[in-house]
Design a protein that fits this description.
The complex is a heterodimer of chains A (about 290) and B (about 375). Chain A is an alpha/beta fold. Chain A is built from nine helices and 14 strands. In chain B, about 35% of the residues lie in helices and about 25% in strands. The chains are: A alpha/beta (about 290), B alpha+beta (about 375).
Chain lengths: ~290, ~375
C-alpha cells in the first residue's frame, strides 16, 4: 500500500490541453496511473492521447461521468484558486496542485475554504506524489525509484529526485514520495504526511527533505519526538543561504533570524533525528 | 516587492487613510518650494528601501524652507546601507501626542492574515515583540470574511486608544485591510499611527510589500519597482526566466531546481569551497536558457570554476549539453567546468560533451569536490 493514493485512485487532470498538462498526462498514463478524465473549459467533448482520455468542460461533469476522486492541477497561476474551488465543490477528495506562482492571498482563501471540507490539498508549486509501481499523480519521474519501504516527504522538486536516485543507487525502494511544495502557504505539511506514514503498513522509515524558511521542520521535529515510532532521517537545504533572499521557492527565505537551516538541523538533531549533510549521505543513515 | 513610503502614502490617501500633507522631490530647490507651500516646518525623509533611515540621518526635521533645502542637499547626496538616495519625501511636521503601531501581515505559521497592533508605536516592532511581547496584540483575520468590527473594537480597547478616536481608528484599519486585499500585499503597515495635537489620527509612515506572485494582476504596482535594491545581474536573469542570486564565493553554479541549487551550494561548503551564485534554470530549460545562464556566470570575474549540476526530469540533459557547448564556443569560456548530468537523456547529453575540456562527474559529492579543487588550481 501507499499513502494518499493507489492504483484505484481515479485521477482527473485540470488543464489537460495545455503544454504541461498534456505532456505530464502522457507520462502519468505511461506509468499506468488511472487517469479517467481531463478538464479544459471550452474543450469538452475532445479526446486526448489518441482518444484514450475524454475532456470535459467542468470538473462537475467529469466527476459525474467518470467518478474521478483526485485531481491534478496544471492550470496557469491566475486561474489556480478557481480550479481548486471547482474541484472541491465537485467533491474531489484529493487535489494536487503543480502550478507555480499562485498568489499568496489566493492560497490563504483556499485554505480557509477547505478548512471545513474533507478535501485534502497538496501544493501548490509541488511535484506531486509518486507511489512507485502503483501510481503517479504529478511530475516526479517514475524511473528513478522502485517500490520499497521508505516514505519520502519533501518541499523540493529536483532535490527530491536526487534523493530518490541516491536511495535507488543504495538499493532502497520507496512506498510513497510526497512533494508538498515550497510555498509559504500550502496544503499538506510535513506533520500531516508523517502521521500518514506512521500508520502505513508498507512504510518502515521516512526521509524528510526540508529547506530554509518557515518553521515546519521544527514542528515536524516536535511531531516526530512525540508521536513517531518509525525512524526518520532528514536533510535540510540552505546551510549556506544568505538571509533575506528568496532562494527560488517562494517560501525559502530566512526572515530576520528565523528559518535558518542551522536552527532546523539543531532542533531536528535534539529531537533524535539523524540529519544528512548532503543528499547522497541519506542512505547510510537509514536504519 | 517593496513600495517606497511616498508610494505607500499615495495609496493610503486614495483609501482614505489620513497622511500628512506632503510631496516627493528629487532636487533641493524642489524641496524648498514644497516646504514653503507647507508653511516651512517640514520633515525631509529619504526614500530608500531599507530600514534604519532615521538612525542613518536620512530623516530630518526642518524649521524653515531654507533649512529644508540645506538638509535635502545633504540627504540627496547620501547612501544609506549602500543605496543612493534619489528622492526625498517632504511632509508637513506633525505634533505627536501619542504613537501606535498597526500592521497587517501574512502569518505563515497560522496560514492566515494577522492584524498586529501595539501602543508602543514608532519603535522597531520586532524588537517590541521580542522584549515586550505583552505590548503586542495579534488578531487573526478570516481571509474569506475580512476583519470583523468587534475585532477592531477589541484592538482599540487593548491598545488603550481614547474612546473618541475609536471610530476613526476602525475606519483606518478597515481601509488598511482593503489596501492589503486589493494590492495583494504581504504586508501593510503604519508605524507610527499618531494622535496629533488636533486630536486626530494620522499615518506618519507607510509601508507596503506586494506579493511577487500577484504582480500579473497588479500591473500598476509592478511598474513602481525600484531596481536600486536589486543586483543588476539578478534583474537581467529574471528577464530570461532564470533565478540568480549573487553570493560571495568563486565557484559559479548552474543547477535545475531551487532546492537542488541550494543543496549544491551547501556541498561546496563541505569541501571548503564557496558558491559565487545561486542559479536555478527552472524546469524544462531550453539550450538558449542554458546559454544565457552561462553568459551570466561567465560575466562574473570572480568565478574560478563552474559547476553544472543537472538532474533531468522534464529538463533534458542533451538540451542542456547543447546550450553548454554553444556557450563555451561562442564566448570562448576557458574557466574549468565540472559537469554532472543525470536523468532524462543523460547518455545523449554526455555524448555531446565528450572529447572536450569538460570535467565529468557521476555523483553530487564528486562534482562538488572537483569544482572546489579546480577553483584552487585556476590562476586569476
Amino acid at each position: 500500500m501507499s499513502i494518499l493514493a493507489n492504483q484505484r485512485t481515479k485521477v482527473l487532470v485540470q488543464g489537460i490541453t495545455g503544454n504541461e498538462g498534456l505532456f505530464h498526462t502522457a507520462q502519468m498514463f505511461q506509468y499506468k496511473t488511472n487517469i479517467v478524465a481531463g478538464v479544459s473549459p471550452g474543450r469538452g467533448g475532445d479526446w486526448v492521447l489518441d482518444g484514450k482520455i475524454p475532456v470535459f468542460d467542468s470538473v462537475k461533469s467529469a466527476v459525474e461521468t467518470t467518478g474521478a476522486d483526485a485531481s491534478v492541477i496544471f492550470v496557469p497561476a491566475r486561474n489556480c484558486a478557481d480550479a481548486i474551488y471547482e474541484a472541491a465543490d465537485a467533491g474531489i477528495s484529493l487535489i494536487i496542485c503543480i502550478t507555480e506562482g499562485v498568489p499568496v492571498q489566493d492560497m490563504m482563501r483556499v485554505k480557509q475554504f477547505l478548512a471545513h471540507k474533507d478535501t485534502k490539498i497538496i501544493g501548490p508549486n509541488c511535484p506531486g506524489i509518486l507511489c512507485p509501481g502503483s501510481t503517479k499523480i504529478g511530475i516526479i519521474p517514475g524511473n528513478i525509484t522502485f517500490p520499497g519501504n521508505i516514505g519520502v516527504i519533501s518541499k523540493s522538486g529536483t532535490l527530491t529526485y536526487e534523493v530518490l536516485y541516491a536511495l535507488k543507487q543504495a538499493n532502497h525502494g520507496v512506498s510513497t514520495c510526497v512533494g508538498i511544495g515550497g510555498d509559504p502557504i500550502k496544503g499538506l505539511g510535513f506533520s500531516d504526511c508523517l502521521e500518514l506514514f506512521e500508520s502505513d503498513a508498507k512504510t518502515d522509515q521516512i526521509v524528510l527533505i526540508g529547506e530554509i524558511g518557515g518553521n515546519e521542520e521544527e514542528l515536524a521535529a516536535d511531531y516526530i519526538s512525540r508521536y513517531m515510532t518509525k525512524p526518520v532521517v532528514a536533510f535540510i537545504a540552505g546551510v549556506t543561504a544568505p538571509p533575506g533572499k528568496r532562494m527560488g521557492h517562494a517560501g525559502a527565505i530566512i526572515e530576520g533570524k528565523e528559518g535558518t537551516a542551522q536552527e532546523k538541523i539543531k532542533i531536528l538533531e535534539e529531537s533524535g533525528i539523524r540529519v544528512a549533510q548532503f543528499p547522497e549521505q541519506i542512505p547510510s543513515l537509514l536504519a | 516587492m517593496k513600495l517606497h513610503e511616498y508610494q505607500s502614502k499615495q495609496i493610503f490617501f486614495r483609501y482614505g487613510i489620513p497622511v500628512p500633507k506632503g510631496r516627493i522631490a528629487g532636487t533641493s530647490s524642489e524641496v524648498k518650494q514644497i516646504a514653503e507651500e507647507l508653511g516651512g516646518r517640514v520633515i525631509v525623509k529619504s526614500q530608500v528601501l531599507v530600514g534604519g533611515r532615521g538612525k542613518a540621518g536620512g530623516i530630518r526635521l526642518a524649521k524653515s524652507a531654507t533649512e529644508a533645502q540645506e538638509l535635502a542637499t545633504t540627504i540627496l547626496g547620501m547612501e544609506i546601507k549602500g543605496l543612493p538616495v534619489r528622492k526625498v519625501l517632504v511632509d508637513e511636521a506633525v505634533n505627536i501626542i501619542k504613537e501606535f503601531y498597526v500592521g497587517i501581515v501574512n502569518d505563515r505559521k497560522k496560514q492566515m492574515p494577522v492584524l498586529i497592533a501595539s501602543g508602543a508605536g514608532g519603535m522597531d516592532i520586532e524588537e517590541v515583540a521580542q522584549n515586550n511581547p505583552e505590548k503586542i496584540v495579534r488578531t487573526y483575520i478570516d481571509p474569506l470574511l475580512g476583519i470583523r468590527d468587534y475585532q477592531l473594537r477589541d484592538v482599540a480597547i487593548s491598545i488603550d486608544l481614547p474612546r473618541d478616536l475609536w471610530k476613526s481608528f476602525i475606519e483606518i484599519v478597515r481601509s488598511l485591510w482593503q489596501v492589503y486585499v486589493n494590492c495583494d500585499a504581504t504586508l501593510t503597515e503604519i508605524n507610527p499611527l499618531v494622535i496629533n495635537s488636533e486630536n486626530h489620527l494620522v499615518a506618519l509612515d507607510a509601508k507596503i510589500i506586494i506579493d511577487d506572485n500577484a504582480l500579473f494582476r497588479q500591473s500598476e504596482l509592478a511598474d513602481l519597482r525600484d531596481n536600486d535594491i536589486e543586483d543588476a545581474t539578478e534583474i537581467e536573469a529574471r528577464k530570461f526566466g532564470i533565478t540568480y542570486i549573487k553570493l560571495d564565493g568563486n565557484i559559479g553554479c548552474m543547477v535545475n531546481g531551487a532546492g537542488l541549487a541550494m543543496a549544491t551550494m551547501d556541498i561546496l561548503g563541505i569541501y571548503g569551497g564557496k558558491a559565487a551564485n545561486f542559479l536555478d534554470i527552472g524546469g524544462g530549460a531550453s539550450a538558449e536558457k542554458v546559454f544565457s545562464s552561462l553568459k551570466i556566470i561567465h560575466s562574473d570575474s570572480r568565478v574560478k570554476s563552474i559547476l553544472i549540476n543537472i538532474f533531468g526530469g522534464i529538463t533534458r540533459c542533451d538540451e542542456v549539453a547543447k546550450g553548454v557547448v554553444q556557450a563555451v564556443n561562442d564566448m570562448s569560456i576557458t574557466t574549468p567546468m565540472v559537469i554532472r548530468l543525470v536523468g532524462t537523456n543523460q547518455e545523449e547529453g554526455r555524448k555531446i560533451l565528450a572529447n572536450s575540456q569538460f570535467i565529468p562527474a557521476e555523483s553530487l559529492i564528486e562534482a562538488a569536490e572537483k569544482a572546489v579543487f579546480v577553483s584552487r588550481e585556476t590562476v586569476s
